Amino acid sequence: DGDPPCAGLSGELCGTAEVLYNTAASDYRIIKNLHITHVVNATANWPDAFPNRLRYLRLRLSDDAQQELVEALPLASRFISSALRAEPAGRVLVHCSAGRSRSSAVTLAFLMEHRRWSLLHALRWLKERRACSAPNMNFLRQLLTYEELLFGSKITSLNDILVTSCFMIVDRT
Protein backbone atom coordinates (compact mmCIF):
# COMPACT_ATOMS: atom_id res chain seq x y z
CA ASP A 1 0.00 0.00 0.00
CA GLY A 2 2.94 2.36 -0.40
CA ASP A 3 1.63 3.48 -3.79
CA PRO A 4 -0.32 6.73 -4.07
CA PRO A 5 -3.96 6.42 -3.03
CA CYS A 6 -6.40 5.49 -5.75
CA ALA A 7 -8.42 8.19 -7.41
CA GLY A 8 -11.51 9.21 -5.55
CA LEU A 9 -11.94 9.36 -1.85
CA SER A 10 -14.03 6.34 -1.14
CA GLY A 11 -16.51 3.88 -2.42
CA GLU A 12 -19.58 3.29 -0.33
CA LEU A 13 -19.84 -0.38 0.47
CA CYS A 14 -22.48 -2.53 2.10
CA GLY A 15 -24.70 0.52 2.50
CA THR A 16 -22.81 1.77 5.52
CA ALA A 17 -19.20 0.67 5.25
CA GLU A 18 -16.45 2.64 3.56
CA VAL A 19 -12.93 1.93 2.39
CA LEU A 20 -10.55 4.90 2.47
CA TYR A 21 -6.85 5.55 2.51
CA ASN A 22 -4.86 7.10 5.36
CA THR A 23 -5.04 10.74 4.33
CA ALA A 24 -8.83 10.66 4.21
CA ALA A 25 -9.03 8.58 7.39
CA SER A 26 -7.15 11.37 9.18
CA ASP A 27 -9.39 14.20 8.00
CA TYR A 28 -12.18 14.67 10.53
CA ARG A 29 -14.28 16.72 8.09
CA ILE A 30 -14.43 13.71 5.77
CA ILE A 31 -15.13 11.32 8.64
CA LYS A 32 -17.91 13.58 9.93
CA ASN A 33 -19.45 14.10 6.47
CA LEU A 34 -19.57 10.32 5.97
CA HIS A 35 -21.10 9.87 9.45
CA ILE A 36 -18.40 7.32 10.37
CA THR A 37 -18.79 5.87 13.88
CA HIS A 38 -16.37 2.92 13.77
CA VAL A 39 -12.97 2.41 12.14
CA VAL A 40 -11.00 -0.71 11.24
CA ASN A 41 -7.39 0.46 11.07
CA ALA A 42 -5.60 -2.20 9.02
CA THR A 43 -2.22 -0.44 8.98
CA ALA A 44 0.88 -1.61 10.78
CA ASN A 45 1.91 1.77 12.16
CA TRP A 46 -0.61 4.49 11.33
CA PRO A 47 -2.09 5.82 14.59
CA ASP A 48 -5.82 5.94 15.24
CA ALA A 49 -6.63 9.53 14.29
CA PHE A 50 -9.66 10.18 16.52
CA PRO A 51 -9.65 7.67 19.40
CA ASN A 52 -11.80 9.91 21.61
CA ARG A 53 -14.50 10.37 18.94
CA LEU A 54 -14.70 7.01 17.15
CA ARG A 55 -14.51 3.31 18.03
CA TYR A 56 -11.46 1.61 16.57
CA LEU A 57 -10.37 -1.93 15.84
CA ARG A 58 -6.61 -1.98 15.33
CA LEU A 59 -5.38 -4.91 13.21
CA ARG A 60 -1.70 -3.91 12.69
CA LEU A 61 -1.33 -5.62 9.31
CA SER A 62 1.64 -5.30 6.97
CA ASP A 63 1.08 -5.47 3.23
CA ASP A 64 3.58 -8.20 2.46
CA ALA A 65 4.02 -11.87 1.66
CA GLN A 66 4.60 -12.91 5.29
CA GLN A 67 1.59 -11.24 6.92
CA GLU A 68 -0.86 -13.65 8.54
CA LEU A 69 -4.37 -12.43 7.77
CA VAL A 70 -6.82 -15.27 8.42
CA GLU A 71 -6.66 -14.99 12.22
CA ALA A 72 -7.68 -11.30 12.11
CA LEU A 73 -10.64 -11.75 9.77
CA PRO A 74 -13.29 -13.10 12.19
CA LEU A 75 -12.53 -10.30 14.66
CA ALA A 76 -12.79 -7.65 11.94
CA SER A 77 -16.01 -9.15 10.59
CA ARG A 78 -17.58 -9.22 14.06
CA PHE A 79 -16.54 -5.60 14.69
CA ILE A 80 -18.03 -4.43 11.38
CA SER A 81 -21.20 -6.47 11.82
CA SER A 82 -21.71 -5.25 15.38
CA ALA A 83 -21.32 -1.62 14.30
CA LEU A 84 -23.77 -2.01 11.43
CA ARG A 85 -26.35 -3.69 13.70
CA ALA A 86 -26.06 -1.08 16.46
CA GLU A 87 -28.96 1.22 17.33
CA PRO A 88 -28.67 3.66 15.74
CA ALA A 89 -26.80 1.88 12.97
CA GLY A 90 -23.14 2.75 12.77
CA ARG A 91 -21.05 3.48 9.72
CA VAL A 92 -17.73 1.72 9.41
CA LEU A 93 -14.54 2.92 7.78
CA VAL A 94 -12.02 0.22 6.82
CA HIS A 95 -8.67 1.78 5.97
CA CYS A 96 -5.08 0.99 5.19
CA SER A 97 -2.36 3.10 3.58
CA ALA A 98 -3.67 3.40 0.02
CA GLY A 99 -7.06 1.74 0.37
CA ARG A 100 -6.13 -1.10 -1.97
CA SER A 101 -4.85 -4.26 -0.35
CA ARG A 102 -5.37 -4.68 3.40
CA SER A 103 -8.65 -2.75 3.60
CA SER A 104 -9.97 -4.60 0.55
CA ALA A 105 -9.02 -7.97 2.04
CA VAL A 106 -10.83 -7.17 5.30
CA THR A 107 -13.90 -5.96 3.39
CA LEU A 108 -13.91 -9.09 1.22
CA ALA A 109 -13.82 -11.31 4.29
CA PHE A 110 -16.77 -9.42 5.75
CA LEU A 111 -18.76 -9.83 2.51
CA MET A 112 -18.00 -13.55 2.38
CA GLU A 113 -18.98 -14.11 5.99
CA HIS A 114 -22.01 -11.86 6.34
CA ARG A 115 -23.44 -11.89 2.84
CA ARG A 116 -22.46 -15.53 2.32
CA TRP A 117 -20.78 -14.71 -0.98
CA SER A 118 -17.98 -16.65 -2.60
CA LEU A 119 -14.66 -14.85 -2.82
CA LEU A 120 -15.08 -14.46 -6.57
CA HIS A 121 -18.54 -12.91 -6.20
CA ALA A 122 -17.28 -10.56 -3.46
CA LEU A 123 -14.25 -9.58 -5.58
CA ARG A 124 -16.43 -8.70 -8.54
CA TRP A 125 -18.84 -6.74 -6.36
CA LEU A 126 -16.04 -4.82 -4.63
CA LYS A 127 -14.20 -4.11 -7.88
CA GLU A 128 -17.38 -2.59 -9.39
CA ARG A 129 -17.58 -0.20 -6.46
CA ARG A 130 -13.89 0.41 -5.84
CA ALA A 131 -11.90 -0.14 -9.01
CA CYS A 132 -8.51 0.25 -7.32
CA SER A 133 -9.11 -2.65 -4.90
CA ALA A 134 -6.25 -5.12 -5.20
CA PRO A 135 -5.32 -7.41 -2.30
CA ASN A 136 -1.82 -8.75 -2.67
CA MET A 137 -1.31 -12.37 -3.72
CA ASN A 138 -0.62 -13.48 -0.14
CA PHE A 139 -3.94 -12.02 1.00
CA LEU A 140 -5.82 -13.57 -1.93
CA ARG A 141 -4.46 -17.00 -1.03
CA GLN A 142 -5.49 -16.52 2.59
CA LEU A 143 -8.93 -15.30 1.53
CA LEU A 144 -9.31 -18.52 -0.45
CA THR A 145 -8.50 -20.43 2.74
CA TYR A 146 -10.98 -18.30 4.67
CA GLU A 147 -13.65 -19.00 2.06
CA GLU A 148 -13.07 -22.73 2.52
CA LEU A 149 -13.29 -22.35 6.31
CA LEU A 150 -16.56 -20.41 6.01
CA PHE A 151 -18.29 -22.67 3.49
CA GLY A 152 -16.72 -26.05 4.23
CA SER A 153 -15.38 -26.52 0.70
CA LYS A 154 -13.49 -24.74 -2.03
CA ILE A 155 -15.77 -22.54 -4.10
CA THR A 156 -13.29 -20.20 -5.78
CA SER A 157 -9.83 -21.07 -7.07
CA LEU A 158 -6.95 -18.71 -7.67
CA ASN A 159 -7.29 -19.63 -11.34
CA ASP A 160 -10.95 -18.45 -11.27
CA ILE A 161 -9.75 -15.06 -10.09
CA LEU A 162 -6.92 -14.84 -12.61
CA VAL A 163 -9.02 -16.06 -15.57
CA THR A 164 -11.90 -13.68 -15.00
CA SER A 165 -9.53 -10.71 -15.07
CA CYS A 166 -11.91 -9.04 -12.65
CA PHE A 167 -9.01 -8.13 -10.45
CA MET A 168 -5.68 -6.47 -10.95
CA ILE A 169 -3.34 -8.74 -9.04
CA VAL A 170 -0.58 -6.88 -7.26
CA ASP A 171 2.20 -9.09 -6.00
CA ARG A 172 4.26 -7.21 -3.42
CA THR A 173 6.42 -10.20 -2.55
TrEMBL record:
Where is coiled-coil annotated? Answer: none
The enzyme's main class, written as a single word, is hydrolase
Output the GO biological process annotations, alphabetical, semicolon-separated. negative regulation of MAPK cascade
Example GO molecular function term? protein tyrosine phosphatase activity
Q: Which domain of life is it from?
A: Eukaryota
For this protein, the record's InterPro entries field holds: Dual-sp_phosphatase_cat-dom, Prot-tyrosine_phosphatase-like, Tyr_Pase_AS, Tyr_Pase_dom, TYR_PHOSPHATASE_DUAL_dom
Does the keyword field hold Hydrolase? yes
**The Tyrosine specific protein phosphatases domain covers which part of the protein?**
77-130
Tyrosine-protein phosphatase domain residues: 8-152
Q: What is its EC number?
A: 3.1.3.48
| GO CC annotation terms, alphabetical | cytoplasm
Signal sequence: where? none
Keyword terms of this UniProt record: Hydrolase, Protein phosphatase
The answer to whether keyword Cytoplasm applies is: no
Similarity section: Belongs to the protein-tyrosine phosphatase family. Non-receptor class dual specificity subfamily.
What name does UniProt use for this protein? protein-tyrosine-phosphatase
